[in-house]
Design brief:
By secondary structure, the chain is an alpha+beta fold. It folds into two domains: about 60 residues, Orthogonal Bundle (434 Repressor (Amino-terminal Domain)), CATH 1.10.260; about 130 residues, Umud Fragment, subunit A (Ribbon), CATH 2.10.109.10. Helix content is about 20%, strand content about 30%. The chain contains five helices and eleven strands, in the order αααααβββββββββββ. A hairpin with a 2-residue loop joins strand 7 and strand 8. Helix 2 packs across helix 3.
Length: about 220
């Protein structure tokens, strides 16, 4: 119930009038007065002034006095104790987790026999391998000087090599002989000697294995189309 509703009821009782008397005096029904006095019906200032005038009171005597604004209660700040988190340790994946995390794509340089970069080749690394070769031991060379037709390797073919430092078995090698890098077929003739050739008899060279610097052994050939 609002303050004005209470004062109207108090003024009516002071004037010794019933709800019916007041309703009749202002031209309303009794339910109207009951709702006004209970605060269920909100009336404007003009109607309130008419009712109060009928009861012998003045409107200014019942103006609501604005209440003092309630100040929010300020709670004292509580000091928060900072805790120092322990330093995070770097985690190195091992075992099967290392394999699972190794499925990435890497770009490899394609060079000629002299090491000049001709382009790049994108390869997926699966279980830390490229075409079953350890990803950090594979490299690619494009044949630009001599074809090895007898071994079905032709100019501009791209050869995948696995790094090596010594002769292992007869095959195609990327090697350095007499300060020159080349791709040749190497066939062992004794424990200390071998034949180095392009596949043609006129290009065969008998060498001491100790004089040959082996760089890589061919494991795959990608045909140039």
């Amino acid at each position: 119930m609002n303050r004005l509703a209470i004062k109207i009821k108090e003024a009516r009782l002071k004037a010794k009038m019933t709800e019916k008397d007041l309703a009749k005096a202002i031209g309303q029904n009794i339910n109207y007065i009951i709702q006004v006095e209970s605060g269920k019906k909100i009336i404007n200032e003009q109607v309130a002034e008419q009712i109060l005038k009928t009861l012998g009171e003045k409107m200014e005597n019942f103006q609501d006095v604005p209440s003092e604004p309630v100040k929010p209660k300020v709670m004292p700040a509580t000091a928060v104790k900072k805790t120092q988190e322990p330093p995070q340790k770097a985690i190195t994946p091992t075992g099967r987790w290392a394999d699972a995390l190794s499925g990435v794509v890497r770009n490899y340089d394609i060079t000629d026999e002299n090491g000049k970069v001709l382009g790049q080749k994108e390869h997926s690394i699966i279980s830390k391998k490229v075409d079953q070769i350890p990803y950090d031991k594979v490299f690619f060379v494009q044949l630009t000087e001599y074809a090895l037709n007898q071994h079905h390797i032709y100019l501009k073919d791209i050869i995948s090599f696995v790094s090596c430092e010594a002769f292992s078995s007869n095959g195609i090698y990327y090697l350095q002989l007499n300060q020159k890098k080349m791709i040749r077929y190497v066939e062992k003739t004794s424990n200390k000697t071998a034949i180095v050739s392009t596949g043609k008899s006129e290009n065969e060279v008998n060498v001491e294995l100790a004089d040959v610097k082996f760089i890589g052994k061919a494991v795959k050939v990608e045909r140039y189309l």
